[in-house]
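Sequence in, structure out. Go.
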Amino acid sequence: MKALRAQNITKSFGGLDVLSDVSLEFLPGTVSAIVGDNGAGKSTFLKILAGIHKPDTGTLHLGSEDITDNSAQENRGAGIEMVYQDLALAKRHDVVTNLFLGRESTNRGGFIARSQMRRRAQGIIEQLGITIPNLDRPVGLLSGGQQQAIAIARAIMFDPAVVILDEPTAALAAREVERTLELIRAQRNARRVIILVSHRLNDVFAVSDRIIVFKHGRVFADDACASTDIFKVVAKIVS
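Output:
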């Protein structure tokens, strides 16, 4: 697996500085949490990592590959997956369709290989220990936790190096939160780079190795979770 490195990243929108000289490295087999107030620059930074926005200055590297100018599609091909807060699921379509959205398998005739996709879908569902009674059911009829699990499963279907999670537990019930946290831990154990943005600090401390505080578009603090606590982090966010 590969490390992800951002160096001296800056970004402005309409003359407003959103990110200023952000340099961070994310290592395989670790969960790095990014926290901060609204407007701190967290979402913009994630979108730059995913290739949705381009930095004004600075560089991005995945392993030895320079991905600074990559599009979102190119970054996805390079091994960076992002699970958005709204999940970006096609809720009228079934589980199999959602897992392969935009990456459908085809047979020699160029037709969609539905049976092959279904077998792979069943395999990833079983591998992750997700409870989905019927893969043919529209995902919009599944629980919030099941939908989140489908979004995470889709992100790891093609063995990415990096998984970025934007507020993965924000809208979940307590039991579903714990199941989602278990999925995040499993991806760390698979030696992936996991980057997590969340306002729920209890969840952050439950799964993260490191917690990074953004403030006014800068890295204000970068601490091992073992060397800090929720009260110290809150104090840094609001100070």
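Check: The CA atoms of residues 88 and 222 lie 30 Å apart. The longest strand covers residues 16-26.
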